[in-house]
Amino acid sequence: MHSALVRAQNVFGFFTTVAFCVAAMIALSSFISPQSPSASIELRNVQVRKGRPHYYSSKKEEYAHISFDLDADLSTLFNWNTKQVFLYIKAIYPSSKPSLPASEAIIWDAILPGTSAPWHQNHYMHPSPKNSKTPKNKRSSKQSQQPQDSPYGRGILHLENQRPKYQITDITGKLQNRTDVRLELGWNVQPWVGPLTWENKKDYGVWKGLEGGVSDGFTFPAVGAKKADLKIEKGKEGHRLMAGEEQPVRKGRA
Amino acid sequence: MSDQLLDQLRDALEGSIDFEGQRLAEMLSTVLLGAVGIIAFLVGFVSQDIKLTLYVGLAGTALTFLAIVPPWPFFNKSPEPWLPPRAASGMNINVDGQKVG
């Protein structure tokens, strides 16, 4: 500690030690932050179509297009050390051979940012609920210029008839008439400091296991099968005016 | 003249402090950095904002550097005095056959 250079080296050396210890404390503090995630996921519609893996391919494969409903409360996954949560929905179905483990394929995913994360274009924007009023005049839209990640709050999702991001196929190329297919919610919590953690089904201390998050079993229909009766919501096309048909009458108008 | 200037420059850069000052600097740097780490963690944890931890930690470290590295006067409060020169008593130092001491 005689000269200024030695003192600078000493202070910096101990600073690295302190920084490491603080980082370790932050990483450990994630594990004492209580978590109680819950989710429910339901199949909305599933179709199997023939397709090609890419445009010039002569191989035809079967692709499943699965839409779903998701209600999830993952707000407790966001503590001060959460950078982002990578959320995904897997379709899980038995492999063609019983000796092999079940096949898993991701049909939809989203990046949910934490509180301290700066804006990024890849962050998930939750669709606003259908019956909510969207600000139309310019003033109110200027006031709400800060991008809202979710209208329900951080980590809470209510998705209805959500279309998949990815159509899935099997390594065999055959997907129709597979039974015991399930949809399962999974996630990966990425902290600022510390280890990555995935979804847990069991309780670990104050981290409660995920409640729900698995859909009922269903079957991939045959290729080109008509939509099964899955209570598909009918849109405005029911009111379309058809040539030579009766004019639709809306209630409260005529 | 230039030697004098260089000496001054070297002294300023070297920033020597006395022995008591070195003990004090060692103790101060440990206490300050330790306190900064604890305070940074607590501030961030209470406000649930990890960026605050980062900024408090970095600011505290910068302050510690400022407090420890320059040769502040309080590090030079007990200079070690030189021994008094002995009277020329039987000391015979010969350099190239010439008597020096």
TrEMBL record, chain A:
Membrane-spanning segments: 12-32
Membrane topology: Single-pass type II membrane protein
Region feature Disordered, mapped onto this chain: 119-155
Compositionally skewed regions (Low complexity) per UniProt: 142-151
Cited InterPro entries: SPC3 (IPR007653)
Main location group: endoplasmic reticulum
The UniProt record lists the keyword Ribosomal protein: no
Keywords: Endoplasmic reticulum, Membrane, Signal-anchor, Transmembrane, Transmembrane helix
One Gene Ontology term from the biological process aspect of the record: signal peptide processing
Superkingdom of source: Eukaryota
Protein purpose: Essential component of the signal peptidase complex (SPC) which catalyzes the cleavage of N-terminal signal sequences from nascent proteins as they are translocated into the lumen of the endoplasmic reticulum. Essential for the SPC catalytic activity, possibly by stabilizing and positioning the active center of the complex close to the lumenal surface. Essential for viability.
Membership in a protein family: Belongs to the SPCS3 family.
Protein name per its UniProtKB record: Signal peptidase subunit 3
Species in which this protein is naturally found: Sporormia fimetaria CBS 119925
UniProtKB/TrEMBL annotation, chain B:
Residues spanning the membrane: 27-45, 52-75
InterPro entries: Spc1/SPCS1
Membrane topology: Multi-pass membrane protein
Leader sequence segment: none
A GO CC term assigned to this protein in UniProt: signal peptidase complex
Places the protein is found: Endoplasmic reticulum membrane
UniProt GO BP: protein targeting to ER; signal peptide processing
Source species, domain of life: Eukaryota
Function: Component of the signal peptidase complex (SPC) which catalyzes the cleavage of N-terminal signal sequences from nascent proteins as they are translocated into the lumen of the endoplasmic reticulum. Dispensable for SPC enzymatic activity.
Entry similarity comment: Belongs to the SPCS1 family.
Taxonomic lineage from the root: Eukaryota, Fungi, Dikarya, Ascomycota, Pezizomycotina
Keywords associated with the record: Endoplasmic reticulum, Membrane, Transmembrane, Transmembrane helix
Protein name: Signal peptidase complex subunit 1
